[in-house]
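Budget justification aside, the reviewers requested a transparent look at the raw inputs and outputs of the sequence design task funded under Objective 1. We therefore reproduce one unedited record. The lines immediately below are the structure tokens for a 383-residue chain.
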């Protein structure tokens, strides 16, 4: 969708996606890791809330090599949108979705013998073949073949699954973004040894070996291998306060709404469900059409803030499903229709996703992912 198509929606709650900033972040990664190393960007969870289809279209145009998804339907959505880049699903497919994954040219992670056998049988029955990447658990503790069994699993795929092409292997790094440097270095070293044993066992090199998430892209160049897999950093966020800021990043979105109603209340008037806030003096109260169903968290009740006309105003009363209230003070020049910044800049001040994450005791990943899909995404140009 383009901006002209969305102009009527700009007076409602919307997320403005700064594609030029996201492109800046991707190009910073490319400069750091080198032109010969491939880049896979994670566009799962609707591009961490930024819009997977539009991001993938841009990625294809600017030379990104791969896309990463969490589910088969996410990959199918990209194919139906005309995206032709290679797509990796980060986890194994269920038997019932294998045929759809193969039909849509989604490279699948594999790590368990029975699942691999079922995928082989699916491809045989379809009269086709598919690429797979072997997932190895070197310390994440989530999914993956254990290191001791990795070479044997690769041999099983290579020799007993003629319809499967073992085209890569990967692992995941759980603390690459923190100060636990030794743990990550040991993981990477062990992973390298595992890859050596796999390649020796099957008698050839794997085309793609990868393990570097955002933390490793920023802090562990020894883990870059053939391809890197940045996620949160392409959207403009460093994964942890401890992560070295070796690449300049710009925020990928602003979360905006408009003032929908203003009223003056007398001292003592209660606002919202539960009557949790009463006006300490005669005050102007603004209502905004953004609530927890949009991703404006209920924990901001009586504690959050918004920006209007370059000034900060407190949220008062409980955040509702679809609306929230703001105290404008005893005098105001705010009017219905004025822009309200939930995340982003207004004048010289800014509310960041980091601020939200700190207040909500979570991480920026969750902040952007929880901006509901009913919130329109408006895409700024990137060229």
């Amino acid at each position: 969708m383009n901006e002209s198509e969305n102009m009527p929606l700009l007076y409602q709650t919307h997320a403005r996606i700064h594609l030029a900033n996201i492109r800046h972040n991707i190009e910073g990664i490319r400069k750091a890791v080198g032109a010969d190393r491939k880049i896979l960007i994670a566009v799962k969870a609707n591009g961490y809330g930024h819009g997977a289809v539009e991001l993938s279209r841009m990625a294809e145009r600017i030379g990104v090599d791969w896309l990463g998804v969490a589910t088969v339907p996410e990959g199918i959505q990209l194919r139906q949108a005309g995206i032709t880049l290679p797509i990796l699903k980060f986890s194994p497919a269920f038997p019932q979705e294998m045929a759809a994954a193969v039909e849509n040219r989604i490279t699948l992670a594999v790590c368990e013998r029975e699942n691999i056998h079922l995928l082989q049988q699916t491809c045989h029955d379809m009269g086709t073949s598919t690429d797979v990447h072997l997932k190895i658990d070197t310390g994440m503790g989530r999914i993956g073949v254990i290191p001791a069994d990795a070479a044997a699993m690769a041999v099983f795929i290579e020799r007993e699954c003629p319809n499967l092409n073992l085209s890569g292997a990967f692992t995941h790094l759980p603390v690459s973004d923190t100060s636990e440097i030794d743990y990550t270095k040991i993981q990477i070293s062990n992973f390298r040894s595992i890859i050596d044993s796999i390649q020796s066992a099957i008698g050839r090199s794997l085309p793609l070996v990868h393990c570097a998430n955002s933390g490793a892209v920023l802090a562990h160049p020894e883990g870059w291998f053939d391809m890197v897999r940045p996620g949160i950093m392409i959207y403009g966020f460093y994964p942890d306060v401890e992560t070295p800021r070796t690449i300049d990043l710009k925020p990928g979105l602003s979360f905006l709404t408009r003032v929908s109603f203003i009223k003056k209340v007398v001292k003592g008037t209660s606002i919202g469900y539960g009557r949790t806030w009463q006006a300490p003096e005669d005050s102007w109260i603004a209502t905004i059409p953004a609530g927890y169903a949009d991703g404006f968290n209920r924990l901001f009740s009586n504690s959050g803030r918004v920006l209007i006309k370059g000034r900060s105003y407190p949220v008062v009363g409980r955040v509702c499903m679809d609306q929230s209230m703001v105290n404008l003070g005893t005098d105001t020049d705010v009017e219905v229709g004025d822009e309200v910044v939930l995340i982003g800049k207004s004048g010289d001040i800014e509310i960041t996703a980091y601020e939200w994450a700190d207040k909500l005791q979570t991480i920026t990943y969750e902040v952007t992912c929880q901006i509901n899909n009913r919130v329109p995404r408006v895409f700024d140009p990137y060229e």
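The two ends are 16 Å apart (CA to CA). The chain is about 30% helix and 25% strand. Computational costs for records of this kind are itemized in the attached budget.
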